[in-house]
């Protein structure tokens, strides 16, 4: 690992909060690295891409569809899969806004395995009737085989979180078939005892499944695909849920932890010439800004460490 890449999703602060957030940060190592590094061309992504910028970098996938990681995730969870095309299904909560539905962060669903299995078992006959094999991975991940649906365009849940789901629902051939099946699942779960209990306990109802990540068996998207031979992609995802929830207090705390866990050690490695270079990639929902620091660039003592580079648009 001579040229590591540190990818920090949602480390770019929103314009309306940037001044206050950066003033509250005590990240001297990050400030040193950014100030004395060379800024590289920014990577811009389409507003309606099917994945967020960091997901496209992580999986080296195109913006046209969610990354094909279903089979990879099945392997990670020890779920056997025969030949065929598989999708991930994640239990979710759709919030009813004034005139549309909004997907909430699936991380916040607080679903345990027993609850998930009860819902899985209730929904399985609907999938069986249509010839779609359903497999249980864990509380948050199920898998569906649908060989004929390989061209279905889907989006990652983080892409859709907090937005009107109409824009992000599966599209293309067989989209109508999925909507029909999904509607049947939703009707089945509407009065399910699990949801009655959750509502009584003040928890969000589980009223949807998010379909994405379609992949052929024995084929998956591997992270670090797009890195050079001497590079290792290091990604810290801790900022993502806080940014999606507009929880900037916790975002600040997570940034301080990133400073301790990543920035300070990497700065020391650069200073000791234990690594040849460090590339920083900081993203938001549509943009990735990049800086490359080297032991030589750290000698630019006339550049006072500052986070001000994050205040301007490249």
What does this structure look like?
With 314 residues, the protein is an alpha+beta fold. It has two domains: 5-57 and 223-311, no CATH class; 68-216, Alpha-Beta Plaits. Helix content is 34%, strand content 19%. It contains ten helices and eleven strands. The strands form three sheets. Strands 2-11-10-1-9 form a five-stranded mixed sheet, with helices on both faces. It has a four-stranded antiparallel sheet with strand order 6-7-3-8, with helices on both faces. A hairpin with a 2-residue loop joins strand 6 (134-138) and strand 7. Helix 2 (28-36) crosses helix 10 (248-271) and helix 5 packs across helix 7 (175-190). It is elongated. The protein starts with a strand and ends in a 21-residue tail after the last strand. The relative contact order is 0.26.
Quick summary:
By secondary structure, the protein is of the alpha+beta class. It has 10 helices and 11 strands.
Contiguous low-pLDDT stretches (5 residues minimum) are none
Largest sheet: 5 strands, mixed
Report the CATH topology name of the largest domain: Alpha-Beta Plaits
CATH class designation of the largest domain: Alpha Beta
Strand order of the largest sheet: 2-11-10-1-9
Give me the Rg, rounded. 22 Å
Helix fraction, binned, reads 25-40%
Sheet/helix structural class: alpha+beta
Average of pLDDT: 92
Number of helices: 10
Relative strand content: 15-25%
